[in-house]
Structure formats: C-alpha cells, structure tokens
Amino acid sequence: MTMRTAVLSLWMLSVFASACSAENQARLNAAGRPVSASLTVYQQNLALVREVRNVRLTAGGGTLAYENVAAQVQPSSIQLRSLSQPGGFSTLEQNYQYGLVDPNHLLEKFVGKKIKLVEWNQYQDRREVVEAELLSTRGPVYRIGSEVYIGHPGIPILPELPENVLLKPSITWRYENSGGEDQKLELTYMTGGFGWTADYLLTIGGDEKTARLDGWFNLDNRSGTRYEDARLKLVAGNLNRNQAQPAMLIRKEMAMMAADAGGESFQQQAFSDYHQYDLKRPVTLEDQEAKQIRFVEVPSVMVEKSYRVFSNQGYYQASPESDGQKQPVQIFVRLNNSEKNRLGIPMPAGSFKVYAEDHDGQPLWIGEDTIRHTAKDEEIELKVGEAFDLAVKRKQTDFRQLSQKMSENGWEIEIKNHKESDAVVEIHESLYGTWEIFDTDKPYEKINSQTARFTVKVPKGGTEFVRYRVRVGI
Known about the structure:
Elements: H1 3-28, E1 36-42, E2 46-56, E3 60-66, E4 79-82, E5 89-97, H2 103-108, E6 114-121, E7 126-136, E8 141-144, E9 147-150, E10 155-157, E11 170-177, E12 182-191, E13 194-204, E14 210-221, E15 227-236, H3 245-259, E16 267-271, E17 274-285, E18 289-310, E19 325-327, E20 330-336, E21 350-357, E22 363-371, E23 379-386, E24 390-403, E25 406-417, E26 423-430, E27 434-438, E28 445-448, E29 451-458, E30 463-473
Parallel strand pairs: 1-15, 13-21, 18-26
Antiparallel strand pairs: 1-2, 2-12, 3-11, 4-12, 5-11, 6-7, 6-10, 7-8, 8-9, 13-14, 14-18, 15-17, 16-17, 18-20, 19-24, 20-23, 21-22, 24-25, 25-30, 26-29, 27-30, 28-29
C-alpha cells in the first residue's frame, strides 16, 4: 500500500466513524450523561458504580436506553430505581448490549448487498470507485460485473450504518411509569476492569533514625468508559466472591453512602471486616488511564535499622568443616504504625520503596519490600537488601552423634565490621526438635520453640565471635 493510499484509507475511515457515531448517539443516548457518579473500587478487578441521571420518561411506560456504561458490567448486578418518585417507576425487563461495532460485524450485515470499493490509482493519481456485491466476508469475496473476486485491494465503503449496531456498551429497559415525565434515576452495577494498589516511599535521613513517608494509591481504569467528577472510595481487603456478592456489596455500600459526612482528603474508616478509604473530592478517571492519588504524607517518622544473619536447620546435621561458610547479612528497617509515630492508620498492602540520603542529602534507592494489610499500632518490617561492609562466617567446630535421635554441635560465628561506625548484628539460629544451648560466650534469647537469637555489638573496624554448643534431639 502506498503512502497516498494509506492517507486516503485513514481519511475515509475517520469520516465513516464520525458519521456512525453521530447517528448512534442520536438514537441511543436517551438518558443523557450522569449528573453525579461514585465509584467504590476493590482490589480484585472489581468496582461498584453508582450514577444519577436526569431522564424524561413516557407516561405509562416505554423503553429507556443508557449509554456510556462500563464494558465489563456484571448484568446480574444492575439495579435501576427512581429517586424522585420511587413508587411510580419500575422496570419490567433489562438488556445489557455489548456486541460493539467492528469491521467484520459490519461487513456481515451487507452480505448479498451492494457496496463500494475505493482504490487509489497511483499511476493516474486519482481515486477509483467500483460497485461490488459482497458475497462472503471470508476472503472477502466480491462479484464485480460478471466476475468474482477473492479479495480486492480497494477499501469497502458501506452505504449506511446497519440497525442494532452499537458503538458503545448500552443498557436498555422496558419500564412502567405512573409518575411524572421528568425523573431522577439512580443506576448501580458491578464491573470488572478496575483495580488499585498502594505504593509507599520511605526516605531515611542521614541519622538513620528518622524518615519521610509518602503513600500513593495507584488506580487503573480499564472498564471501557470514563467517569467525570466521581466520588471515589477504595476498599482494602480480600473479599470472597460468589453469585450473591454483587447485590450484597451494593446494599452495604448504599448504607455507607447514607451515613457519610463531608471532608477534604482521604478519610479512612472500618467497613464490615475491611477498610475503606474515601477521597473527599471529585476525581475524573479516563478510560485506559492509570492515576496516582496521595493518601499519606508524613515528614518525619521514627525508624530502626537492624542487621540480621539467619542459619539453616540443616546445619545441625552436617559434619565439621575446616574453612567455614560465609553468610549474607540482611538489612531490615522497622517502623511502628502508631499515632505516637505520627501514623496510626490502617495501611493497605503494597510495595515499599526505601531510599536513604547520601552525604549530599540526595536520596538514593537502597531496596524495596512488600507489606500485607497492616492495622494501626502494628509494626512494619521491611527487608531492603544485604550489607556490603559486614562479613559473617560460620564454622562448625565439633559434631557428635550421641544417639540415634540426638546430636551435639559446636559452632563459631565470626562477625567483621568494615563500616565507619559501630554495628549491632543479630544472629538468628534456627533449631528443631528439643534443643539446649550451653558453653556459650555470648548471651542469647529464646525467640520461639525453633529460634535462638544472639545480639552482638561489633565496633567499627572490629571483629567479634559467637561460640556455643547445642544439643539437639528429635
């Protein structure tokens, strides 16, 4: 295809699409656009949509069509009611129409009919129009004069837009109306194509004791339509989904809407066994758009950094090794989600990106971790990486098989600190069965039935050792 042919093709398609859109809009947009909308978005590719439209109805009854609805509507969740005259309006039948226009669907409507094929003659620099009968869309196959063409370089031009062809998903109802003509109708439905996540940015200061925390909600709209000036709510938690869920969620959400008060920013509140975050300002979401909205901004929270080494239960079955084994020293950052620490809010699951300020005060990324849903007054612990300047080597100094089910081990753990400051390193020894530590040169703490912890302060440029024996039985 030449450049001139391509330009002609695009121009003709755009003209045809504009004409189709204008005609379809005039026929289907009977209810007008929403005058208000609200979205409750869940973390499971699901959202509850509530919108209000001003509608002119026919006295006695008739057919009503709504355009500009989501393309992934769950039909069983659709509910329509009158806010202005609840007793005078009822629906008898509803249809969700989602068979949208596409080239093959359009051509199928014209099989056995006359259409035009337009081709650009590059040699004579002019447009040529041929009348053809469409015999089949497979190929496609045309009859031009007395000859049958299997395929043709021309672009098909249709004489009109067929009936019952939709450019956008629509819902239609048959209704009865004993009230007035002008009414305010409320539509609610569940739809897929929505989701949200939480992202956190933690920037640790030069003192390594305080940090700035920023939290963002990432909202993704792939529902097939836009929502203008909508009230936004996000629900955190893992909901069980079944056939009865849409109506249940709609009823609960309607109750929450009735009880809400106004505000200026995200307001968190418990919702059943979940948590709801309510943005107290309208937001516009375009279709196929990802939007970020801040929900946490704390200039200074207290943090605690720690270094940890973890053993393996299999060590206690091994034989002595002469050279020992190097182990990584993992870096953890902990903060308390409490009001005392300027937080104290339920924090939804998400990704934590951790930065640290360098000597020039510039933030550098040092690692990231994820958190689960974290209630207020709970601790948040992040594993961010491995320490470069701390070296640990583990060596088994003795091994004795006391019986078929009991052994005794001797261990030496060497910790070297190449940092410019002192460091506190936690040695977490993972044990099994019944165990007893003895002949140790460092105190330890029994964390649980399978873990002992040695906490060792290592001076800058220095070396410390942890030596102990342990008797393990199964």
